[in-house]
Amino acid sequence: MGNDLTYAVLGTGALGGYYGGMLARGGRRVCFQVRTGFEEVRKQGLVVESCDGDFTLPRAEIHADTSSMPKADVVLVCLKTTANHLLKEMLKPILKEGTLVILVQNGLLFEEELSSELPGVPIAGASAFICSFKVAPGHIKHCDFGHISFALLKNSEAASSLLEKVKEDFIACGVEASVEADLPTLRWRKLVWNIPYNGMTVVMDTSTDKLMQNPESRKLIKDLMLETQQGAAACGVMIENEFIEKMLTYTDSMVPYAPSMKLDYDAKRPMEIKGIYSNPLKAAINGGADLKKIRMLEQQLYFKQSEYLK
Amino acid sequence: MGNDLTYAVLGTGALGGYYGGMLARGGRRVCFQVRTGFEEVRKQGLVVESCDGDFTLPRAEIHADTSSMPKADVVLVCLKTTANHLLKEMLKPILKEGTLVILVQNGLLFEEELSSELPGVPIAGASAFICSFKVAPGHIKHCDFGHISFALLKNSEAASSLLEKVKEDFIACGVEASVEADLPTLRWRKLVWNIPYNGMTVVMDTSTDKLMQNPESRKLIKDLMLETQQGAAACGVMIENEFIEKMLTYTDSMVPYAPSMKLDYDAKRPMEIKGIYSNPLKAAINGGADLKKIRMLEQQLYFKQSEYLK
């Protein structure tokens, strides 16, 4: 019955609710931190409506904040990166010697930033290829896909062995999971999808399928992917052309979809512009690549955000 | 009392209504072609609400199409360029030997296109720095500025002398006017304003003042101007950096303004993407300049237009 690891999930939304829910359903000990609607979720439990079968966890361990949570072997950080300035303080009560902190988040350089705040703590990144969203507090809808990939920021024997056990737990609980050798590769490959679709659905106020149907916007989506490939190369990460074609085909096959940034925009929440645009642009510039179309998208997104966030 | 030139105005909107109206008020013979609301305009005449003083022309010569119009010495083409495929046929009834056709339009290469359809006809371009719009058929509101600059596509003694007389007529009728030596220079200088503001007000769904207030969008506006400068250079047209600063300052001083493309977009009319984006991009590529942000704006505009035009 698995590795007996204890998990803490920070942020019980589209990702934390689904992956934490799958682990808990599979018998792992999981504590969930729920910010919005804590009382309600504690009463009703966690509900996951999934394309692979719905389930409810009436007795999920729900906490309003980390101060009441036990120390964990593994922390899955599933918060929006716009809350990452709070992360160090949130983590303190639940860290013990060797706790592995996994950022199940979008965007570049957050593992590096956290590591400089918490030196010595093993940190990994995770990239989720999944269509899911939060319907209401404690109520997650999972529409498609679900694979999760992990990679360590710094390799060590202890952290590698722990991450391997995490992967085994995910797989045993019904989630496709893998461990990748290189974190920048993991992050840049995800950006190939996130950079074009997140920003373009916001700026064009549309959904992925519409962008793919019009030949001009489809061309622009591909141009943005090719610039992402250039940025990755400037950071020493090679992304093959076939991967770009695969991402286009993958999106063609998706149900019409509003990426997380579009949901944030529609709800007038802060958008993850820093991790998905500003940090990659900074890294690319450092490597000598000037990504003009991605920079323009960043500029447009900051304008759009300024219309509702002061 | 002037040069006794007869004028035909094709399209009695923001530009044709204002400039034709000023000429007619000043005593020149002007025939107006009015497509939408012809009956109404013939009854009520032409109304110009101007920041320099309102006036009405109850007896303006209004025609539904050119077939009933007398031949003209000068034709002011003030149609949207999206109607330019009709231009050759519209012009036929009103052209005589030496008639000067002036395209008071936005965008690049239309004079060249018309010249290849009507070889031997003298053609000029005109660029209007004006804030005006059509309130209703035959009812124009002029808010700011008004200068018009002319330039010939091909220089000839007869055409130059005629264009000089046109300029004198405009000035005598209260419009600031000038003749410039080089048509590509005239067109590219106007594009320095048109390329950033027309597209960006549509794609961001906003007005010029909002774009100038946010630092990121202001930077993008300037980036687009700098790319326009690059495109001009690739076509042999030098635009000085001071001109770009002047356009930014000019826009800061403007009343909050929706450029013509934004009005077209809001009214779900075809947008002048070809003249303001596609033709300049084509000319720049021919000269070896790849204008990535302008190309991205063109792609976004075609997407936006495809949402309402099938």
Topology:
Two copies of one chain form a homodimer.
Chain A: E1 6-10, H1 16-25, E2 29-33, H2 38-44, E3 46-50, E4 55-57, E5 61-63, E6 74-77, H3 87-91, E7 100-104, H4 110-117, E8 123-136, E9 139-152, H5 157-172, E10 177-179, H6 183-203, H7 208-213, H8 215-234, H9 241-253, H10 260-266, H11 273-286, H12 292-306
Parallel strand pairs in A: 1-2, 1-6, 2-5, 3-9, 6-7, 7-8, 9-10
Antiparallel strand pairs in A: 3-4, 8-9
Helix pairs in contact in A: 6-8, 6-10, 6-12, 8-11, 11-12
Walk me through what this model shows.
The structure is a homodimer of 310-residue chains. The first copy, chain A, has 310 residues and is of the alpha/beta class. Chain A folds into two domains: 6-181, NAD(P)-binding Rossmann-like Domain (Rossmann fold), CATH 3.40.50; 185-306, N-(1-d-carboxylethyl)-l-norvaline Dehydrogenase, domain 2 (Orthogonal Bundle). Chain A has twelve helices and ten strands. The longest helix of chain A is centred in the middle third of the chain and has 21 residues, at 183-203. The relative contact order of chain A is 0.12. The A-B interface holds A 203-206, 210-211, 214, 216-217, 219-220, 223, 292-293, 296-300, 302-304, 306-307 and B 203-206, 210-211, 214, 216-217, 219-220, 223, 292-293, 296-300, 302-304, 306-307.
